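Encode chain A's predicted structure.
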Amino acid sequence: MKQPITPLIMILAMLFSATSYAGNTNTYKWVDEEGNVHYSARPPAGSNYEKLKVKTPPSSSNAPQTTVEGTTSGTTGSSKPSGGDVVADELAKNQQIRAQNCEAAKKNLQAYTVFKRIKKPDGSVVRLDDKERAQLIEESKANIKEFCD
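Encoded structure for chain A:
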């Protein structure tokens, strides 16, 4: 009795290709002009990026597990050591920035509501007319709605 060998060869080919792909892979992280963080298998052309060395350990569970061994900088990137979960670190940073934006929006609303004269970053003081002031108050309220929980 002759058994078909083709299914056996296909199964072996799939196993060998999966094990050859496993191991160390590189992931690149960069921030675009709008401040959005991107992750990719290829580095961006002509912009700063961070090269993350990601090792995918073999697992008996169906869920993929990824660990970050460390980071190295790309040719145009800066070196930033990162430990632990990259996603959790980014979420923590985003929450901190969101809290800072919330506080700034609240301070701006109070300043525009109480004062008619505002000090600019260059140190000069300007007097706001009622139309400008109302517009800045509305912008501050929108920022509070966006950044404050």
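The helical segments are 6-21, 86-114, 130-147.
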